[in-house]
Structure formats: C-alpha cells, structure tokens
Design goal:
Layout lengths: L4 H18 L4 H11 L2 H4 L4 H10 L7 H7 L1 H21 L10 H15 L2 H9 L4 H19 L8 H31 L2 H12 L3 H16 L4 H18 L4 H15 L7 H10 L3 H7 L1 H16 L2 H8 L3
C-alpha cells in the first residue's frame, strides 16, 4: 500500500522484529527478513518507483503505467517464494519453534478490518482497465484514504490534515524538482548521443545477449549501492532503455528488473536507506547487519536472474492488457 521499501521497513519493522523475537527467532535473521521482504513494496502496485520509471522512460518511448503495475505482480510473487523457501530452510536448520496453527476465523476477522484500506487497490485496477487515468486514480485514492482514515479507522483527525498536506507538499516538491532536472538531463544525454556511445561500447565488447544483460545488471547493482533509488532511475533509464530495446526486450521488462536491482541496492552499504532503517530499529550495527544480509542478497539475486532471463514468466500478464 505504501509503495516504498523504506516506509514498509520503518512502519512494520518494530512490530515484526519484536514478534519474531518473542517467538524465539534470532534478531539478526528477523531484521534481515523484514528488510528483504520490504522490497515487495516497490515491486507491486502502487509502487512510486514504477511511476518514476515511466516518467523517466517517456523521453525514449511510451510506457503504460497500468501495464507496468500488472507486470509487478508475478515478480512480487517470485520474490516472496524465494524468501519463503530460504526462511523455511533457516527455520529448520536453526530449529526455530513452530508456534500456533492457521486459524481461518482469525484470518477472516483480520481481513474484514483491513478490507476498507485494501479497496484502494481498485483505483489501480481502474487505471489498468482504462476506467481512470493515472491522475484521476491518484485523486480518487487520496479522497478514499481520507474518508477511511477519518471515519472508519480513525487513525487521524481533521486537525492532522494540514500537517499531512504539508508533508505531502514537501515530498511532491522534491519529486517535481527531480523530474524537471531529469527532463533536462535526458535531453542533454540524447543531444550528446550518450546512449548510442554506451550501446556501441557494450556491443563492441560482445554481441551476446546474455553477457550484455549480465553487464547491465552489474551496472545497476553497483550504482544502486551508491546512489538514491529515485535519482538513479531518472539517470539510468534514458541510457539503458535504448540498449535494452535494441536487444528486442520490452521497456516494461526493464522497469521490473531495474526496480528489483535498485531495491537490492536499498539493502546494501554504503547508502542503502532500508539497511540504515533496519539498523536503527533493531539496534544492530550496520556492518554486522550487512554481513547477515549476504544470504538474502544471494536469494534475491536468484529472483533477479529468473526475472531477467525468463521475462515470459511475468510478461504474459501485462501483454493481456494490450
């Protein structure tokens, strides 16, 4: 719902880590699992980074945000599965206790409480089906969230609305400045023929599609460790997208792969924001937490390989919306 890895980790981390510790799980593992699973937030709708990708790609080609949202569901499931398999392996190896059983009644009660907030997903579906434009969907989702927050969940009051709007305005201002600079940056890259130069350099090294995809993934992973995600999407998309399309691949495929790549970057030093949030919540030092994350990097790398080299595993869904 938040569309942000950092927000997911910051809001759910204190709850999830404590619950897992109370059940006998190791704090390092609980923190790493919380951080790794938070990347789900940027893969599935309403991922704000996917919206940024479509805007960054607009200087090269048109990308449907509805199709990109649809494309994120299966990759989100793939990431979930690999993390669950690894979690099961660790739980058995470390002999973590099995507590409680699935309770359908409790599940239905929780669903009935959550359904009002979950209905906001319908506005995303409206974009995909063509009922709403992206702007109309966002406006309706904001109004719905206000109604649900004020009158159903009562999580805030009318006196809190000016403060909320102030925070939104500050965030929106930063995004608009980034987009404005990105437009100028994209124009400059195109004028200087940087994408063509980079493309020729890569194809000069090899014309093997598999190797080029490996190099592009390594580039995104390395830069993702050092630069904030939104900025990097705006900078990298105009450069990588022409190369990606020259390989006969869809820009929607790149959007998913790039978001997961840079999502892994959020969990890595030296500037991974989610890693720092996980450290602050758990009280574990960054260097120790990063070391504990190594198996999760490998597991998430497996998901990245699947999505990079087997686009047919998830592209069938957005292709149905064409």
């Amino acid at each position: 719902i938040s569309g942000s890895s950092s927000a997911d980790c910051a809001s759910l981390g204190p709850i999830e880590i404590k619950m897992m510790e109370d059940q006998g799980y190791d704090r390092d593992f609980a923190t790493c699992l919380t951080m790794a699973s938070s990347v789900e937030g940027i893969l599935v709708p309403p991922s704000q980074n996917m919206v940024i990708f479509t805007l960054a790609a607009s200087g090269v080609t048109s990308v449907s945000i509805g199709q990109l949202f649809l494309a994120g569901y299966v990759p989100g499931a793939v990431l979930s599965v690999v993390l669950m398999v690894y979690s099961y392996y660790v739980s058995v190896k470390m002999n973590y206790p099995v507590t409680g059983r699935f309770d359908l009644r409790a599940c239905l009660r929780a669903f009935s409480r959550a359904v009002w907030g979950m209905l906001s997903v319908l506005f995303v579906v409206g974009v995909i089906t063509g009922v709403f434009t992206t702007t109309e969907s966002a406006a309706c989702a904001v109004v719905w969230s206000l109604v649900v927050g004020l009158f159903i969940y009562k999580g805030f009051g009318f006196k809190d609305i000016p403060h909320i709007f102030n925070n939104v305005t500050m965030t929106l201002g930063k995004v608009l400045i980034l987009l404005g600079v990105s437009g100028a940056f994209t124009y400059l890259l195109t004028y200087l023929k940087v994408p063509s130069i980079v493309s020729e350099a890569l194809f000069g090294l090899t014309d093997n599609k598999i190797l080029i995809l490996i190099m592009l993934n390594i580039l995104m992973l390395l830069l993702g460790c050092m630069i904030e995600m939104a900025c990097l999407i705006l900078m990298l998309t105009p450069v990588i997208l022409p190369i990606w399309m020259s390989l006969g691949l869809s820009p929607i495929h790149l959007g998913v792969v790039m978001v997961l790549n840079l999502g892994i970057g959020l969990l890595t030093p030296p500037v991974g924001s989610t890693l720092f949030i996980g450290s602050a919540i758990s009280g574990i030092k960054i260097e120790k937490l990063a070391k504990s994350m190594i198996p999760f990097y490998i597991v998430m790398g497996i998901a990245l390989i699947i999505l990079t080299y087997f686009p047919q595993s998830f592209m069938w869904l957005p292709n149905m919306a064409i």
